[in-house]
Each structure stands twice: as C-alpha cells, then as structure tokens.
Amino acid sequence: MNRTTSNIQSEIRRLCAERDICILAHSYQSHAITEVADFVGDSFALSVKAAKAPNKTLIMCGVRFMAETAKILSPDKTVYLAAPEAGCPMAEQMSRDYILSVKQAHPDHAVVAYVNTTAELKTIADVCVTSSSAVKIVKSLEAKKILFIPDCNLGSYVAAQCPEKEVLLLQGGCPIHASVTAEEAAAAKAAHPGAKLLVHPECIPGVVAQADVVGSTKDILDYAHASDEKEFIIGTELSIVEHLQFDCPDKRFYPLSSKLICANMKLTTLIDLYNCVLGAGGEEIVLDDDTMRDARRCIDAMIALG
Ligand code: 13P
Ligand code: SF4
Predict the structure, then answer these.
(1) Of all atoms in ligand 2, which is nearest to the CA of residue 174?
(2) Could you tell me which residues are beta bridge partners of residue 244?
(3) CATH number of the domain at 180-259, out of 2.170.120.40, 3.40.630.120, 3.40.50.2300, 3.40.50.10800?
(4) What is the structure's pLDDT at 50?
(5) Nearest residue (CA) to ligand 1, atom 10
(6) In this structure, CATH architecture of domain 90-174+292-305
C-alpha cells in the first residue's frame, strides 16, 4: 500500500468492516481521525453511542477515562484505547482515598463527579455529570450541599447557576483550559471586536465572565454552526478551531489562546489507530467487576437525571 493519509484511512475502514469494529473519536482528535470515526462527539455522547453500536469491538481515540466509561457502559464489548499513554491529567488529580476523607468530613454532601474522572473515583460518587448536563443535574438533586469534583472552575460555574445549592469545591481542574488568563481573554476580544467569545466552563471564572456563550465542546460547536454571526473566538481546545474552520468556510474562527492544546488528546495518531485496528497496538481496557458495578451506578444516575 502507498502510505498516504487517504489510503490508510481506506484501509482502516475496510478492516473495521471485516473485523466488526466501531471507532469512537472525541472532538479534540485530529481531522485525519475524526474523518474515519463512526462517531465523533464529547466523551459522554461517545459512550452512549458505543453502548448502542452493534459491533463487538470498540476503539476509543481520546483519553483513558473515556475508554473506561465506554467499557463500563458496554461490559460485553472489547474496548481498546488507541494510544495507551493518553491520560487526562484532571481525571487523575484526586485519589479515591483523598475523596473518601473529604466525604467523611462532609457526610451531608452529595458527591458530584465530572465525567472526566477515573473509573475508580466514580465508584464513590453519587452521580456523574458532563459539562453540558452539570447545571441541570445539580439542580435536580435533592441534596442542598454538593461536593463537586475534580474541576473547581466547572464547579464555580455550576455554583453560580445554582444559587440555591451550597457547592464545596476542591483545588482541581483542566490544566489546559485553566491556563488562559482573564487578560488574554480581554486582549483577544480587543483584537477581534466583531467576534463572539465562546468559552468552555473548564476555563477560569475571569475568562468565563467575559464570554458571550459558555458551554461544552458540543454546545460551542452547535452554536458556531447555527449562528448567523461571522466571527468567533474559540475558548476551548485548538482542534475545535480547525474543525469549525473546515465545516464553515464562510466564517472566521480565532483561538482564544495558543496554549489551548491538549497534548494527551494529540497523542493518538492515524497510525496508532491503524495499528490498533490491525491488532498490533492500543490497550484493551480491563476493569474489575466491583469497579464496573459501582462506577456504573453513578453513570446510570447521570443518564437518568440528564
Ligand atoms: P466536553 O467534550 O465534554 O465538553 O469536555 C471537554 C474536555 O476537556 C474533554 O476532555
Ligand atoms: Fe483532560 Fe483538559 Fe485534556 Fe480534556 S482538555 S483531556 S480535561 S487535560
């Protein structure tokens, strides 16, 4: 085979059909990967799609917690993470023992875990949320006191939208989104005065406060696609600027900051995916039965409430 991008993509599609494989790609993956994926979306949408897919094998192009969530929701399927070294620093920031000790000190708080957490941490949470469902789910909980883990920036945003709740936050978050300063946001707005600023709630409150739209990756994509406006500053991972510019050639998209690159999301290459489809790469996700059962409880609660 002549190793061009399109030839490798065709070979991946041929092998997937032959071997009954479904490819899932998070929207932060490269265009070469999103083009060959069966489903592209945020981590939760991918897992739900995965559980419904008829294929016996799933390959996740994203980070480890996403592959774990897919496995928890599809226990009978074989799930691979295409790039085994791709982790999410935020998902791994807090240990189970640490959160158990916080829970012990605050026994009247419901534990709400962002889906960007390890399967192990999900086992001790009451409910999971995604960035798009967090406000709705927190509002719907009976508990007035909430311990929100691990992202204190998403947690601050949720707390501001849910003044009726007492939200306890810990020091954690996405190092990529949280790296953007309020001064950078002001400078980007000054450089592009006609552009709407669309920001992910993993950014710090001083950035979120300046946004025209605050939303998950999917919310940002949907807003930019549907809007009649012509210029947008994108306050989330740089690949979203690339995908939007590809999809909407009549609009202009500017990155909020050149620091918005998730190195872990960039670890998966088209060749990693090809090798995984061939059976010569990737890592099969294996979780013990107790972890699967207990983590599933909090994911099921999210599905029921969200
Ligand atoms: P969403 O895709 O759910 O908005 O999450 C953003 C993110 O940082 C994923 O790792
Ligand atoms: Fe984790 Fe942030 Fe990268 Fe998402 S963008 S995978 S939250 S480090």
Answers:
(1) 2
(2) none
(3) 3.40.50.10800
(4) 80
(5) 116
(6) 3-Layer(aba) Sandwich (3.40)
What DSSP element (H or E) covers 39? strand 39-41
Q: Quick one: CA dihedral 63, 64, 65, 69, positive or negative?
A: positive
Ligand 2 centroid from CA 295, angstroms: 20
- Spatial neighbors of 261 by CB under 8 A, at least 6 apart, are 176, 237, 238
Ligand 2 site-directed mutation target among 29, 265, 267, 268, most atoms within 8 Å of CB: 265
Secondary-structure breakdown of the chain: helix, strand, coil percentages, each rounded to the nearest 5: 45, 15, 40
Nearest CA to ligand 2 atom 3: 262
Mean pLDDT of 184-208: 98
- Output the pTM of the full model: 0.96
170-173 — which CB contacts under 8 Å span 24+ positions?
Answer: 170/94, 170/102, 172/90, 172/93, 172/94, 173/90, 173/93, 173/202
pLDDT of residue 2: 87
Each domain of the chain, given as residue ranges in start order, spans 5-87+265-286, 90-174+292-305, 180-259
User: Of 58, 52, 87, nearest to 71 (Cα)?
Assistant: 58
Distance CA 217, CA 141 (A): 24
Q: Quick one: pLDDT band at residue 175, thresholds 50, 70, 90?
A: very high
| CATH code of domain 5-87+265-286 | 3.40.50.10800
Q: Which atom of ligand 1 is nearest the CA belonging to 216? A: 4
